[in-house]
Amino acid sequence: MKKKILICNRGEIAIRVGKAIRELGHISVGFWTDNETQPPHLEYCDQWIHLKGSSNTETYLNMDQIISLIKEHKIDAVHPGYGFLSENTEFSKKLEELGVTFVGPHAEAIHKMGDKAISKQMAKDAGVPVVPGSTGEIESAAEAAVIAKEIGYPVLLKAVAGGGGKGMRVCVDEKELDKNFEAVRREALSSFGNPGVLVEKFILNPHHIEVQIIADNNGNIFHCFERECSVQRRHQKIIEEAPSPFIGTDEKLRLEICETAVKLAKAVNYNSAGTVEFIMGEDKSFYFLEMNTRIQVEHPITEEITGVDLVANMLKSALGEELDIKSQEEIKILGHSIECRICAEDAHTMLPAPGKINGFETTFGQGIRFDHCIFDGLEVKPDFDPMIGKLIGRGHNRRVVLRKMRYAIDGLYIEGIKTNIALHKLILDEEKFVSGHYTTNYISEIKPQDGIADLVKTENLYMKAISIEANILD
What we know:
By secondary structure, the chain is an alpha+beta fold.
């Protein structure tokens, strides 16, 4: 039977989900708001619903209004995408009470994995290695100082309910710890409504490695290998790739970290798409960070190297259908994939730069996928995340995909707003990134953003030369 599935999101992820819903033969339903009266994802929806309001609080975070609309329009299932209500336990429970399917894991998994203190304890109980530090919420800077003395500085203060790099401060000594403790609590309360704080050992020169999980309601839990997400700014990712160049050909390590992720997913009876995130040291020892109980921004690179449609399988799992995958042995790594997050932001400062797009064109080669929500005339508003697209390349190996991505990034033209395209051009040509030997310190240490002005100047001179040549030929 066809199900009426509401996409409780916007932007490129709403487009991606809309495509999957239609492919599976169901009815896709999308929201439009007073802030976005003609969002591009509605092109992939069979029905449109007005979500009244102009701010996120009034619209995509307004649980009461959304629940009311779900009842009114007789929605069968809800896909939350990422962000907004995607990891909200209360929302999941309310849908369950209504008899509406939440396209994601069960509420208990969202709750346990969404709380850093609970998830860390569960990981320990399951035999999953965790970063040394507090297992539960700490009440004072003095208590944090005692733990920091035991595990050694530097340490990381972070929000219990945090995510996206918010509510996190590195402290190199007790003086910094004392100064930052209340600041982290305030930021945690402001961002997540929970002032709880953890203290953990800060791993020097770390790699951010995450493992993609896909599971169903029959106890089948598979991994789709790992991704490396170490190119970050303010703990938010810029470029991701799969598989990890740091793990490289170490298949024993790859198997170990992937099976560890499955072990944790089994401990919480996981039943959807999800990601187990780890921090890996220079010695290749790894520790559990957190589990994201939703589809990730960077899921396309896993789809590209495995052929597994994560969004479709997420939907199939929620609707009680069999996954496309029958065994772990079916999932294999085929080539390499890299994703560049295209954001409306200043390429040097990496701060959001909203505005109106007045020109958009692409000239891509083979092996390129562009998941985006861009159109000529799109107004990028400050209310939303600045990411407007994801440029994804796939090749036989990393060397090939780097070549394809360099050509593709040169063929992406967005005019009228500032973007981080120039930053991606510099990173894709930078020696340390090309070698694959980079850590989460990459942006702060290599500082590719410092070359933006010279790159722009060179490109302007090139375009001027092309214009002069064209005039001469005319």
